[in-house]
Amino acid sequence: MHPDEKEAVIDDLMAFQESQEYYAKVGKAWKRERIIIFTINHKEKLDPMLIQRGRMDKHIEMSYCRFEGFKMLAKNYLDVIEDELFGEVQCLLEESDMSPVDVAENLMPMSKKKRRDPSVCLIGLIEALKQAKKEAATIKVKEA
What we know:
- Pfam families: AAA_lid_At3g28540.
- This is AAA+ ATPase At3g28540-like C-terminal domain-containing protein.
- By secondary structure, the protein is mainly alpha-helical.
- The chain is built from 7 helices and no strands.
């Protein structure tokens, strides 16, 4: 395994371990015979066995995350209904395209510091939105 990939796996495992509280709240849906819903950016990258009939029966195409969706994600992940940073997030969501999965990833409590302060997660999201906006502008210039 490449050292960078190994480091990424270790980082993910550490983040998972540090977020036990969060995952305990989510629960084990598969043990309670519940429906599991997940999103993915690239359906073609899924294992064909996963998307065969009877395993994944409903496919829903989703749009990019907009402010109303962000507010729901902020409530679910950060337990925040309103924050002074919401205005900046709203402007950036209107100017850039980011999937709800990417927004949620930035809102997930990945460390003890982030878990205590939702503003840290929101600032991280703002930085990610600025980066996405910059990358989209670069691609647009290259295509022109």
